[in-house]
Amino acid sequence: MATIDIYTKGYCPFCVRAKHLLDKLDVDYNEIPIDGDSELRQKMIELAGGHTVPQIIINGQPIGGCDDLYALHAAGDLEPMLEQ
């Protein structure tokens, strides 16, 4: 089973949408809220390379944000990643 980290903020509609897809696919993920935590936000930037939320990392590989997650799903590439 894949290890999934998703960096989020509480007021972010894209975070909600990304988590909704992961929930729909019935996969476990580790949500890391970065609201007001500049050190955690910096760690997210270093690990994922992105400055906006959500930032999603699957099996140590940064995949980007919500649109990237949905694009992987639409292309049929997300489920194989989740099975690793």
TrEMBL record:
InterPro entries documented for this protein: GLR_AS, Glutaredoxin, Glutaredoxin_subgr, GRX_bact, Thioredoxin-like_sf
Pfam families: Glutaredoxin (PF00462)
Residue span(s) of domain Glutaredoxin: 5-62
Keyword terms of this UniProt record: Cytoplasm, Disulfide bond, Electron transport, Redox-active center, Transport
Family recorded in the similarity comment: Belongs to the glutaredoxin family.
Function of the molecule: Has a glutathione-disulfide oxidoreductase activity in the presence of NADPH and glutathione reductase. Reduces low molecular weight disulfides and proteins.
Protein name: Glutaredoxin
Lineage: Bacteria, Pseudomonadati, Pseudomonadota, Gammaproteobacteria, Kangiellales
